[in-house]
Amino acid sequence: MNQYEKKIRTQVNEIMQDITEDTSLSVIRDALEFYFSKQKYARKCLVCGALINKGYVLNGGNKYFCSDSCAKKELSEDTFNQYIKEYEQEEANGGDNDDFYFTEWEDSEEFQYYADGSEV
C-alpha cells in the first residue's frame, strides 16, 4: 500500500466513524463522494503520483516528493542524504535552502488539484 492509499484509508475510516449499521449504502456512497470531491491538494509526487499537502520540494519547486522513499527513488539514497545534510546545516545557520526542503502547504491559494487529480 503506497502513501496515497494509506491516506485515503485513514480518511475513509474517519468518515465511517459517523456511520451506524442503519445507514444505507447510498448515504455512505454519497458521503464519501462528497468528501473526496471537496478535498484539494497542493502538489503531486513526481514518483508515485500521490496528491500531497506536505512533502519535499526540489530545485525551488521543479519537483515534489511525498516521502523519503519517493525522493530516494528519484535522487538516490546518497544524494537524498546529502540534501538533508545541507538542509539541516542551512537551517542551523538561520538560512533558507531553496534547493531542497520539506514543507506543508496550508494556504488555499497553493492548492492545485482536486482529489480526482483534476486541476483546480
Task: Using brief descriptors, characterize the structure shown.
two-stranded antiparallel sheet, three-stranded antiparallel β-sheet, single chain, 7 strands, elongated, 120 residues, alpha+beta, 4 helices
Q: Helix share of residues? A: 40-55%
Radius of gyration: 18 Å
Order of helices and strands: HHEEEEEHHEE
Task: Please give the alpha-carbon distance between the first and last residues.
Answer: 27 Å
Q: Work out the strand percent.
A: 15-25%
What overall geometry do the principal axes of the alpha carbons give? elongated
- Regions with little confidence, pLDDT below 50 for 5+ residues: none
What is the number of helices?
Answer: 4
